[in-house]
Write a structure and sequence with these properties.
The protein has a single domain, classed as 2-Layer Sandwich (Nucleotidyltransferase, domain 5). It is built from 4 helices and 6 strands, in the order ββββαβαβαα. A hairpin with a 3-residue loop joins strand 1 and strand 2. Helix 3 packs across helix 4. The chain is globular, with a radius of gyration of 13 Å.
Length: about 130
Amino acid sequence: MTIAALDIGLKRIGIALCLDNKIVMPQTPIMRKNRLQASVDVDTFLKEWEVETIVVGLPLNEEMKRRIQHFISLLKYKCEAIFIDEDFSSCDAKEMAKGVFKQKRDGKIDSVAAAVILDRYLCTLKSF
């Protein structure tokens, strides 16, 4: 089963992929110019990898939560969407990537944050 995670921000969308329910791989992030371009790019990625489930990180902030849910509704590629708490995923990603990434605005940290979100989701599956 192919699962992808999205860490959706206003400027970048971090993406991580898991093909075997074990190994999570951060992918090239999507740089957002606007919602339409970003949704087409996410659709293309999901279709290319034949993703069956997307795990979407949701923040505590109600405004951002609403924006993220709206963005997911724009996707034409249909698969199961699971929303989970993304608390501290970016902080964890920054800590994990200390000294590894030089540029801060290239989106790599966002994809590592998506990997953290996906790891958390996979851990919940294993606990059942």
